[in-house]
UniProtKB/TrEMBL annotation:
GO terms for cellular component: cytosol. It catalyses: D-fructose 6-phosphate + L-glutamine = D-glucosamine 6-phosphate + L-glutamate. The active site is at K364. Residues 42-181, 214-359 form the SIS domain. This is Glutamine--fructose-6-phosphate aminotransferase [isomerizing]. Catalyzes the first step in hexosamine metabolism, converting fructose-6P into glucosamine-6P using glutamine as a nitrogen source. Its EC number is 2.6.1.16. It is an enzyme of class 2 (transferase). Homodimer. GO terms for biological process: amino sugar biosynthetic process; carbohydrate metabolic process; fructose 6-phosphate metabolic process; protein N-linked glycosylation; UDP-N-acetylglucosamine metabolic process. One of its GO terms (molecular function) is carbohydrate derivative binding.
Length: 369
């Protein structure tokens, strides 16, 4: 049942090209327009949306953070991302022109379900991005966009995360087309690039030998930091979460720009830091800013493990290790940059002799608040 792999997690990491590809299947109609799964929302309802609020927990919430960057860029609709349990018990400013998008692999997470119910009571439109057909959250939502990652057994989410990001890109591109505007034309070409992502993920999975070795060397490490910027910020947070969940190591993800406002004080000799470097094409010179961050922490003794695109040579002088990912446009890069972080957590957990699929104290689906 593990398809020749030692753990479900390893199997699921390797299924990620399919999770992304299958989530994209059947998403375009004859005219090349994007289509949703079941929906009670009319195109007019969706045209009238003036705000999107994404609610989720855990890994799904990091998919939501990635979605914010992409959806705002393509649609110019303001997007907020909030942990479902925080959203539920405050007074959010939402109405019938708000689209509340929940993201949940299981569709049964009680915190997320309660937040969806709260949103409906307040009159918002609700859309569920979910991996489990017929589960409670999609049943209680106005519209559904199913991810097709297939069943995810390992407690720590991997392929569902990539599928969630993919589905939120699809949602963003759909809304961009529906509403016209600057990025409607770009939607077609981004869709085309998305179709090519499974092959890039496949290629990347074939390059993970060095990551595995690094993980083995680091079995005694007590703390690991992760830095990222732009869409790399949620990827850094997800890398840290994976390590906490699987290897019980203190791990923290930071926005790279925040480094100088506090976290840089944590850097001392030998501190391992993963840096998710933005694509050199990222707007506003963010690539150069992150390269400076790597230089700063290296000068203070950090051991820098850099995740950078093929051909990005600027990082090399400041990197103890460079992990290469295929090139992509900046907003799509999380589908690639998170993969080495998943593989790292998997192999560190294995090196420590821990239960990869069933980490202590965690459940796959938390059905209590
Ligand atoms: C947690 C799981 O409890 O729930 C995480 O351990 C998961 O892996 C989170 O990301 C949210 O779950 P779901 O099913 O709502 O995506």
């Amino acid at each position: 049942e593990k398809g020749g792999y030692a753990t479900f997690m390893e199997k699921e990491i390797n299924e990620q090209p399919h999770a992304v590809g299958d989530t994209l299947l059947g998403r375009t109609d004859d005219e090349g327009r994007l289509v949703l799964d079941q929906t009670e929302l009319s195109e007019d309802d969706l045209r009238s949306i003036d705000k999107i609020v994404i609610i989720a927990c855990g890994t799904a919430a990091y998919a939501g953070m990635v979605a914010k960057y992409a959806i705002e860029h393509w649609t110019r609709i303001p997007v907020e991302v909030e942990l479902a349990h925080e959203f539920r018990y405050r007074d959010p400013v939402i109405d019938e022109q708000t689209l509340v998008v929940s993201i949940s692999q299981s569709g049964e997470t009680m915190d997320t379900l309660m937040a969806v119910r709260h949103a409906r009571e307040l009159g918002a439109r609700t859309l569920s991005i979910c991996n489990t057909h017929g589960s409670t959250i999609p049943r209680e939502s106005d519209a559904v966009l199913y991810t097709h990652a297939g069943p995810e057994i390992a407690v720590a989410s991997t392929k569902a995360f990539l599928a969630q990001i993919t589905a939120s890109y699809v949602l963003g591109l759909y809304l961009a087309q529906l509403r016209g505007g600057t990025y409607a034309d770009e939607a077609q070409s981004v869709m085309k690039e998305l179709q090519g992502m499974p092959a890039k993920i496949e290629e990347l999975l074939g390059r993970m030998g060095r990551v595995k070795e690094i993980a083995r060397f680091m079995a005694d490490t007590r703390s690991v930091l992760f830095l990222g910027r732009h869409v790399g910020y949620p990827v850094a947070m997800e890398g840290a979460l994976k390590l906490k969940e699987l290897a019980y190591i203190h791990a923290e993800g930071f926005a790279a720009g925040e480094l100088k406002h506090g976290p840089i004080a944590l850097i001392d000799a030998g501190q391992p830091v993963f840096i998710v470097v933005p694509s050199p094409d990222t707007a506003h010179g963010l690539h150069g800013k992150v390269v400076s961050n790597i230089q700063e922490i290296r000068a203070r003794g950090a051991r820098t493990i850099v995740i950078a695109e093929d051909g990005d040579e600027e990082v090399v002088p400041f990197a103890d290790e460079v992990i290469r990912i295929p090139q992509s446009s900046p907003l799509l890069a999380p589908l690639l940059s998170v993969v080495p972080l998943q593989v790292f957590a998997l192999h560190l957990s294995t090196a420590k002799g821990l239960d990869v699929d069933q980490p202590r104290n965690l459940a796959k689906s938390v059905t209590v608040e």
